[in-house]
Amino acid sequence: MTDTMRENSIGACVAIAVLPWIEWIPRKRFLPAASLAAYEGGSLYLILNGFRSTAVERIVVSPNEVIVIALCLASVSILVRLMTAVGAWRRRLSPERTTSHLHRISRRVLSDPKGLTGLLVLGALAYIAVVAPLIATDPLVMDFGSSLRPPSAEHILGTDMYGRNLLSRIVFGARYSLGISVTATLLNVILGASLGLVAGFFRGAPDALIMRLFEILNSIPFLMLAILIVAVFGSSIPMLIIVLSVFVLQPARIVRGQVLELREKEYAQAAQALGASKGRIILHHVLPNVLPTLLVVTSVRVGQNILSLAGLSFLGMGITPPTPSWGSMLQEGREHILSAPWLGAFPGAAIFITVLAFNLLGDSLRDALDPRLGREW
What we know:
It is a single chain. The chain folds into two domains: 1-97, no CATH class; 166-373, MetI-like fold, CATH 1.10.3720.10. 73% of the residues lie in helices and 0% in strands. The protein is built from 16 helices and no strands. α3 (30-52) runs antiparallel to α4 (63-93), α5 crosses α16 (342-369) and α6 (113-130) crosses α16. The longest helix is centred in the middle third of the chain and has 37 residues, at 166-202.
């Protein structure tokens, strides 16, 4: 590449980093361009309105929290721009360069209606959870004069028996439901994958010990075990994360089964014959082939943890009231299911939509990562 071409490429990549739509629109990627434009426009409006309204009691946010939210939103914008600019730079340096495996997977997921729907819904839910203080009123403020009001222009989703705005409680409940479930799932996958790698690769005594531990845990119903632990140690958020992440290690069995097969492959045997350490074989030859399966397990496991957390909250063993939680709102609406059905319908719809989005994304990832389907995208 000549110096002039290189300078032109650098200039083009800088322009793309400032305005990613320049790169996306000619490639007919209108949805990402429109989504990013809406994201940045809405974020800018909410941040400016948050700084302007911090003195208003209706806004549940402090100036420091506005700054933190602004930094989080800006970090996502910067990351998108860097990824777009790097991709454009690589395409201009080597147009004949083959597409990476990660890029092919992302293209397949985005081309699949299930994957695209799941990503859009989950992206919207994550955005709502982050900017919750900027778009909702205080979920703990009671107004007994407005108790059990049906959905109206003033209260879009109605109010509960204490006069609290149901929309605000659902929006803030997304923070706790998604935050706890995602954190517990990540810890669960990391711990389960580590134990599965050790059991499948080393076999022998480690495999026997780990598998006996799994059999003991699987012999006890999870809900019974969770209720017992929460009843003894309390229902704090750290304890809920521990319960959801440690006592259901399904990823370990899946990873173990794959590792038992991968360790016998020719490339793993050749690396061992060439003197590679076991740690190197695991990190460079076994783990990369297990990661696609872990992505699918993670997406499905988050939905399962949301349901488990909602079930514990419904039984009074989850997030402690008056902290908003989708499960506890279902439990509160149970007593008024005939007179005020919106109390249970809207939190239930939030749980249903979130779990469905994670399952759709998991199905799409499974299809994209399965070479046996032979699907053209």
